[in-house]
């Protein structure tokens, strides 16, 4: 084996070690792809000096990066595993105001509705007959019905 | 990884595989050609090897296929070709990409005048 062949063997061995965590099939495929690339790049450029082989290997990149790429090549794109910035809770300032506004709006609506109902009951009660038992408890009828 | 490297990695993720499909849509290419064209165009000439895992995934997903052909000189070459699934994925991505890109451009203020 020539010294240039040894460079290639060493490079592929580094890839193999870095890829120890990959499933065997994927590791073998990756090594075969890289070996094929190197063979063809050598054949095309007639690269036989050590410097020329090193250029081919340098362009392939360092084994760890290649394996890292293989590791993230699952069937769906994944977010890179960058460290998350320290967690910051959202400022709570706006939240109570929003709730208070909603509560106030609901209460306002209920009051308006009650007012409307009271007017409706009073109108339909009329002046010339005692009010029949109203559907809605109205304060006016409550006072009438007291007594022994 | 520097911030710049992390940024370009993040930008490439999700787009580079469609660059592969688009190159193969023009003509079939063997590994070395494909990897060199792609890394040349995207400024990745010192990480050609990282494309092979991507090619492997595209093959597993049925978007590309390979065939061996004899070469006039040197070892036989394994050519990568686009499958009909790959073609459909590329067409879909082109539409999505235009919409996505113009949205980002609008927000960033980088629309071409």
UniProtKB/TrEMBL annotation, chain A:
Record field: transmembrane: 97-121
Location of region: Disordered: 127-148
Keywords: Membrane, Transmembrane, Transmembrane helix
Keyword Membrane: yes
Top-level taxon of the source organism: Bacteria
Name by which UniProt lists this protein: DUF1707 domain-containing protein
Organism: Actinoplanes flavus
TrEMBL record, chain B:
InterPro entries tied to this protein: Metal_resp_DNA-bind_regulator, Tscrpt_reg_PadR_N, WH-like_DNA-bd_sf, WH_DNA-bd_sf
Pfam families xref list: PadR
Domain of life: Bacteria
Gene3D superfamilies in UniProt: Winged helix-like DNA-binding domain superfamily/Winged helix DNA-binding domain (1.10.10.10)
Location of the Transcription regulator PadR N-terminal domain: 20-91
Record protein name field: PadR family transcriptional regulator
Organism this protein belongs to: Actinoplanes flavus
Lineage of source species: Bacteria, Bacillati, Actinomycetota, Actinomycetes, Micromonosporales
